[in-house]
Amino acid sequence: MSSIETILDVEVTTLPPDKLLADINAKIKQKQKGRIVAINPEKIMMAQQDESLKQLLNSSAYKIPDGIGVSIASKLGGGQIRWRVTGVGMMESLLELADREQHKVFFYGAKEEVVKGAMENIQKQYPLLPIAGYCNGYEQDEQKIIDQINESGADIVFVALGSPRQELFIERNMDKLNASIYQGVGGSFDVFSGTVKRAPEAFQKIGMEWFYRLITNPSRIKRQMALPKFLLAAFSQRKKDSK
Matching NCBIfam families, A to Z (predicted)? Predict the structure, then answer.
C-alpha cells in the first residue's frame, strides 16, 4: 500500500505517527536527508495558484496531515488518513525521539529571547537532550548560518521563519547542510517558550485547535476562510473523479 495520498494534486503522507517516527529515526541512523512539511488546507489552496510551492511540498520526504480539514478531505476521497499531526506536535515528537536516541538538535529562527526561552524550557523537560546550538531568525549572513549548523553536528534542524520562508531556506540549503532531518515549525518556538499558549488538550484531541486560535485571535478569520473553500474544492474533485 502506498504511503502517499494526493489531495487536489498535493501529496500527503499516510504513515500513522508511530511508523512515521520510526521511518525518520531510520533515516537519521542511515545519514539520509529528509524534509518535513505540514500540509494544511491553507497551503493546499495556495498550491493551486503556485506551481513552485506545489513542487516544493510534493518533493518533501514527509508531508504530514496538519489540520482536521485534511483528514476530512481524505475521507471524502476514500483515503486512509484518520489522524492529524500538527507542526508543533511533530516537533514535540521529534524532541522525544531525539532525547531517547540522543540525536543532536539545532534551533534556527524567531527572536533571540524566543528561541533561547524555547531551548531553556525544552532542556528542562528533556535534561539529557543534546542541543547542538541555535541561531535567531535575524541573522542575515546565510553562509554563517550554514556553517554554524554544520559545525554543531546537528542531526535534526528546526527552522522557525514562517511559511514559506522556512521551507525555501531548507530547500535552498539542504544540499549544503550535513543534518538529516529538517522541519519548518512556524510559530512553534513561541509555544515552547511560553510566549504563545497552545490550545487546551480538549481542543487538541478533537482537532479543533484552529477554532481555539480563532476565538482567541479573531484576526485569523481570513486565514481560516481557506477551510470551507478547500473542502468545497476537495468535494468537487471527488465528484469529478467518481464520474
Answer: wecG_tagA_cpsF
Per the structure, the count of domains in the chain is 1
Nearest to 34 by CA among 205, 196, 171: 171
- Residue at grid coordinates 515552547: 192
67, 40 contact by CB (below 8 A):
yes
Domain range for 14: 4-242
User: What grid cell was written down for 67?
Assistant: 489540520
Strands 10-13 and 4-7: antiparallel
How does strand 156-160 pair with strand 105-109? parallel
Give the integer Cα–Cα distance in Å for 18 and 225.
Answer: 32
Q: Which of 206, 186, 188 is nearest to 198 (CA)?
A: 188
**What Å distances lie between residue 52 and 65, 89, 110, 210, CA to CA?**
20, 27, 25, 26
pLDDT (tens place) for every residue of the chain, 243 residues total: 468 999 999 999 999 899 999 999 999 999 999 999 999 998 999 999 999 999 999 999 999 999 788 988 998 888 888 888 889 999 999 999 999 999 999 999 999 999 999 999 999 999 999 999 999 999 999 999 999 999 999 999 999 999 889 999 999 999 999 999 999 999 999 999 998 766 566 655 555 665 555 555 565 556 566 678 888 888 887 767 765
Whether the Cβ atoms of residue 210 and residue 42 lie closer than 8 Å to each other? no
Q: Please give the model's pTM, rounded to 2 decimal places.
A: 0.87
Pick from 156, 35, 174, 159: which is nearest to 105 by CA?
A: 156
What is the rounded distance in angstroms from the CA atom of residue 42 to the CA atom of residue 227?
7
Q: Which of 96, 91, 47 lies closest to 70 in space, CA to CA?
A: 47
CB 208 within 8 A of CB 218: no
